[in-house]
TrEMBL record:
Residues 70-326 form the Protein kinase domain. It is found in: Cell membrane. The keyword Ribosomal protein does not apply. This is non-specific serine/threonine protein kinase. Transmembrane segments: none annotated. It is a lipid-anchor. Its EC number is 2.7.11.1. One of its GO terms (molecular function) is protein serine/threonine kinase activity. Its main location: membrane. One of its GO terms (cellular component) is plasma membrane. GO terms for biological process: brassinosteroid mediated signaling pathway. Keywords: ATP-binding, Brassinosteroid signaling pathway, Cell membrane, Kinase, Lipoprotein, Membrane, Myristate, Nucleotide-binding, Serine/threonine-protein kinase, Transferase. It is an enzyme of class 2 (transferase).
């Protein structure tokens, strides 16, 4: 006995399990029936989605303009290992679709690809960008999903141009994502591969949805996790495999993204949480937008999700319950909360020139970075909050200045280890805040192959001086060192845009 690929009811009229025969229910209408989608209350919503189907390669070629470069929408462009294209089906609805085209080595086993696609294609939920079909002809392996027209969470959270994502919308993203994971878990698909801000998409109503593509394995052995090691679940580092609890850990990293507006490595964030340094963790753009209690509760949820031991992390249902209690504007539509205008292709690909310092960071020329930081001195500290109190010229303040002076001497002499020690003494003194000291210690860490520490200092420099492009450029250099090239390129763009504004 097999299953009808159109409606997934059982059939026994064909012995070949690959023969796409339709049952009598599907043959009652010439048009494909809509799938029932479950909403978050377990009720059924009738949405206009066709049944899962196997597309012909010619159909998808026509839909994407022959897989035209102009239609590439994947995060790494046409250089991505598995490219995603925007397309339009030639059907009654002129439906927009997203077509993921795998490289030839990703799915050598035809049967496994079809089985995975059909299984994921059975899922239908308003919290997902649902899988509509697939194509398996010759060496081609393609997936077809609903197209989401309003960009990714990464775009709206890290690379916004007009306004930052509001607190209420960030909480909604967290809740809807948790609901998507709970639904998938309840349907036996608890594993999600490489969950990150690029996997969360916004539909035409600006509601966040989870991409279905991550529900597909991308190799025969299930070892599929391409996220930078700094963001990888600890157990994956040991076994090379994703488990259900790994997905909750990745969800925790997204909560950190939502809290901070930056892609903070979990280890650094947990240090700030342990020190109760929530101010350094939360996005400065959200000041006054939420209560301390709500912020502390979201930090608590993130901390639980990021527990080192998988068994100590909550399940998706528990997370949904916790996040539901934080929703204060549930009746407000996402369109109202987002307040976004349609982003045109010209705007999304707009390039800006880099300053000499930005250029040096882009090519990881640490010697040039050192020369420029040395030349500019401390003039960029002007206007920054350099003192934490009215305390003036006390012994404590003098000790701090002496530590900074020793650091400057070592920095000029390129004794980077000694400079780190002296600058650390200045920072730990706590009497003054200097974004330049953080920038200089950041470079010292890069010179000592400590990219993680360098990223932390560059981020702290930005906190101390939010309109300082140097801090963003240094974050880009640290991200390059961590192998996070896409994030680094976006940070370079942000730094360049900030320079233009200031």
């Amino acid at each position: 006995m097999g299953a009808c690929y159109s409606c997934y009811s059982c059939y026994s009229c064909c012995t070949c399990s690959l023969f796409p025969i339709c049952c009598s229910r599907c043959l009652k209408s010439k048009q494909p029936r809509s799938s029932e989608l479950e909403n978050c209350n377990g009720e059924k919503d009738e949405l206009k989605l066709p049944c899962f189907k196997e597309y012909k390669l010619d159909e998808l070629k026509a839909a994407t303009g022959g897989f035209s470069v102009e239609n590439v929408v994947s995060e790494h462009g046409e250089k991505a290992p598995n490219v995603v294209y925007k397309g339009k089906l030639d059907d009654d609805d002129d439906r927009l679709i997203a077509v993921k085209r795998f490289n030839k080595s990703a799915w050598p086993d035809t049967r496994q690809f079809l089985d995975e696609a059909r299984t994921v294609g059975q899922l239908r939920n308003q919290r997902l960008a649902n899988l509509l079909g697939c194509c398996c002809e010759g060496d081609e392996r393609l997936l077809v999903a609903e197209f989401m027209s309003n960009e990714t969470l990464s775009k709206h959270l890290f690379h916004w141009e007009s306004q930052p994502l509001k607190w209420a919308m960030r909480l909604r993203v967290a809740l809807y994502l948790a609901q998507a994971l709970e639904y998938c878990s309840n349907k036996g698909r608890s594993l999600y591969h490489d969950l990150n801000a690029y996997r969360i998409l916004f539909d035409q109503d600006c509601n966040p949805r989870l991409s279905c593509f991550g529900l597909m394995k991308n190799s025969r052995d299930g070892k599929s996790y391409s996220t930078n090691l700094a963001f990888t679940p600890p157990e994956y580092m040991k076994t090379g495999r994703v488990i259900a609890e790994s997905v909750i850990y990745s969800f925790g990293t997204i909560l950190l993204d939502l809290l901070s507006g930056k892609h903070i490595p979990p280890s650094h964030a947990l240090d700030l949480i342990r020190e109760k340094n929530f101010q350094m963790l939360t996005d400065s753009c959200l000041e006054g937008d939420f209560s301390n209690d709500d912020g502390a509760e979201l930090v608590k949820i993130a901390s639980r999700c990021l527990q080192y031991e998988p068994r100590e992390r909550p399940n998706a249902k528990s997370v949904v319950t916790s996040l539901t209690a934080l929703q204060k504007q549930a009746e407000v539509s996402s369109l109202v909360l987002m307040e976004i205008t349609q982003i045109t292709p010209a705007e999304s690909t707009k390039q800006t020139d880099l300053s000499p310092f930005g250029e040096a960071c882009s090519r990881m020329d640490l010697t040039a970075i050192h020369e420029m930081l040395e030349k500019v001195g401390y003039k960029d500290d002007e206007g920054a909050a350099t003192e934490l109190s009215f305390q003036m010229w006390t012994n404590q303040l003098q000790d701090a200045l002496n530590g900074r002076k020793r650091g400057d001497t070592a920095f000029k002499a390129k004794d980077y280890t000694a400079a780190i020690e002296s600058y650390t003494s200045f920072i730990d003194n706590g009497t003054m805040i200097s974004p330049t000291v953080y920038a200089r210690r950041c470079l010292c860490y890069l010179m000592n192959n400590k990219a993680q520490e360098a990223l932390g200092d560059a981020m702290q420099a930005q906190v101390a001086s939010p309109n300082w492009s140097t801090a963003l450029y240094l974050q880009a250099a640290a991200l390059f060192s961590l192998g996070m090239e896409n994030d680094a390129q976006e940070m370079l763009k942000d730094g360049s845009l900030l320079e233009v504004k200031t």
